[in-house]
Amino acid sequence: MSRLIGVINLDHELDQLKELTYFRCGAAVPFASRYRLIDFTLSNMMHAGVHDIALFIRRKYRSLLDHLGEGRPWDLDRRRGGLFILPPDWNDPTDASRGDLQHVHNNLDFFHRSSGQTIIHAGTQHVNKVDIEDVYRYHQEKNADVTLVYKPIDQLESEHDPCARLEIDENGRVTGIHQEQDHHNIYLEMFVMDKDLYLDQVKHCIAHQDNHFFRDAIQKNPSGLRIYAYRYEGYHAVINSIESYYKNSMKLLDQQQYQALFQNQPVHTKIKYEAPTRYTHSAEVDHSLVANGCTIGGKVENSILFRGVRVEEGARVSNSIIMQKCVIRKGAVVENVVLDKDVQLSPDRTLIGDIRVPYVIAKNSVI
Amino acid sequence: MRKKEVVAMLLAGGQGKRLKGLTRTLAKPAVFFGGTYRIIDFPLSNCTHSGIDTVGVLTQYEPLVLHSYIGVGSDWDLDRLDGGVFVLPPHEKEDGNNWYRGTADAIYRNLHFLDQYDPEHVLILSGDHIYKMDYSRMLHYHKEKEADCTISVINVTIQEAKRFGILNADDDLKIYDFEEKPEQPKSTLASMGIYLFKWEVLRRYLLESASDSESSHDFGKDIIPLLLQHGRSLYAYPFAGYWKDVGTIQSLWESNMDLLVQDPPLDLNDPFWRIYTRSPNQPAQYITQRAILKNSIVNEGCMVDGEVRHSVLFYGVEVGEGSVITDSVIMPNVKIGRNVRIHRAIVNENIVIEDNAFIGPEDSSDEIILFDQESQLHARI
């Protein structure tokens, strides 16, 4: 459905994943054994046939650019359109735009040139499998100005605290947007809006010295927009802290959660050419997710191993997340730990974190 | 078009009859190997790593899978503006006949392809061997010897020798005798089916062989003996690494099993010599609490709830609770039910195995069973 234009806006995503976001933005954080958080958003858009995607980035985007390339894994390497990675670039001294509105204002050409007529706007902190085509259909059915995607959450957790909530009437119309923490309708930071209306609202916000599109144009709704809510029931995880990252990663070890995230349609990511994983005679692995390129001779339990990890004979990894190319040498013990890429754990070292607050080791460390 | 120093021609038209059901609908070079690869990934990746950026792939038998698999060659970095990978199926000409009559004929019928690059040397490869080889070293050797033709050779046992082209060379490795699949092999230097020719020389002999109605238009049977007869300079290039002709169910199985030893002779994890392949894009493998995995290779997209010992699992394989897989190769997307036993077998792709089934050789036979669509039909009767 090439009528849709994707906008992925990383402006309001805070890099609060401690060591994992010291040198990369949240969107580039590795997740679920072989992906980066942005893969889920891109794959959802890809499956809805979105050919034009603007990505608004501001800081720490080197690893994100490396990951995305020209967008081939998401079928975005197009002759016309495709993936537009748009870092900030301001040369116009008369430009009065502020905040995330700057991105739109400075890239109006992208919007004008795209043949798409409807904006699908999303972030990367809410990992989900939203069927965007279905949201679009709902948006049209309701003849809405804006359609917000939400999920009712039974069990609210601390990562939901910063999320916006939706008050919805019986017709599905949004009557209020707030952050009252005991309210269950969590907004997924995903909305659909007509392109012309979107650009009008952006212009209006800039003229009023606003700096936050969602808050100033939608939440406060000064123009009286018809805002509707689309109810989503599938897989959903909010990743906005180390605790939520660890907790939601570990939840994927539950078979139903794993299937909810990966069944039906594939999630695409940068192509690597790792060999399949090798289990040696001494391997003991249970209840784990393992990516390709690993060599496992030790014990691995309740853990998530990214690509190219080596666990030597006599080593033990439990309740941990081990990122790309880490090496756990003989006799080393790792428990409740998140090891970023390329960490080497020397023989017989022991690293034990707390099950609620895992120990995070920065990229490239040798311990 | 820029003149190329070397252009590779990959012979990928073979049916691979001895692989039985595995090649019913695909050519032998497209047969799966090693948990994620297809055989053709090896020569293609070797070309890329050897700096050969122009490769013609000659197809004939069941080309659909092979053609769509190769695509524009981007997975092997062969989507080049000047060069790249070209799929070359047989085509009709003015004289009508359109099937490749033999390996040499296949090259002869693509003279135009080669002429447009006007290469100094042409490297002939086949698509049915598993090995990692730096062709640029062979090229260096070929130029140093000023050879008209250099044949890559490997030492085999005298029993195996009958299956290969066997050559005899002097101390300087100059070849003086070549026999295709001899009954009584005189040496154990086997041709690996990798020939490096001076294009100018090969071109002349291809033309000559093409007009000879007696010829079988084959490199081993016709071209090489003819070159020797005419006193051309042919050299043997000794190769010492892992090399396996995976022409039979048995050898395909063996070659997969060779990956399971400690420090395997074929290192698939070498970051400087990756074997590129088309990524199936599957989620990480899911290993349950009950699973047991020993001495095995498992790809992404697998869900293992049973026991896997000394086996190779391709992507998308599911192993149900209580099932035990030993000494076997399970091709992509096979769904294995509960309490299934699979022993010394190759299970073809996309097959569903019902609960409590047994797949393996009768009693103590050391035969390797191929379980495919056909054997499934028999099983139901």
Relative helix content of chain B: 10-25%
Q: Total helix count of chain B?
A: 9
The largest sheet of chain A, given as strand count, sense and whether it forms a barrel, is: 7 strands, mixed
Query: What strand line-up does the widest sheet of chain B have?
Result: 5-4-1-6-11-8-12
- The radius of gyration over CA of chain B amounts to 22 Å
Report how far apart the termini of chain A are. 50 Å
Give me the side-by-side strand order of the main sheet of chain A.
5-4-1-6-11-8-12
List unreliable stretches of 5+ residues of chain B.
none
Mean pLDDT of chain B: 92
Based on helices, strands and strand pairing, what is the structural class of chain A? alpha/beta
| Residue-averaged pLDDT of chain A | 93
Most extensive interface: pair and counts? A-B, 37 and 36 residues
Counted beta strands of chain B: 28
Instruction: Please provide the count of β strands of chain A.
Output: 28
Instruction: Provide the gyration radius of chain A in Å.
Output: 21 Å
Percent of sequence in beta strands of chain A: 25-35%
Main beta sheet of chain B = 7 strands, mixed
Family (chain B): Belongs to the bacterial/plant glucose-1-phosphate adenylyltransferase family.
Pfam family, one (chain B): NTP_transferase
EC number (chain B): 2.7.7.27
Keywords (chain B): ATP-binding, Carbohydrate metabolism, Glycogen biosynthesis, Glycogen metabolism, Nucleotide-binding, Nucleotidyltransferase, Transferase
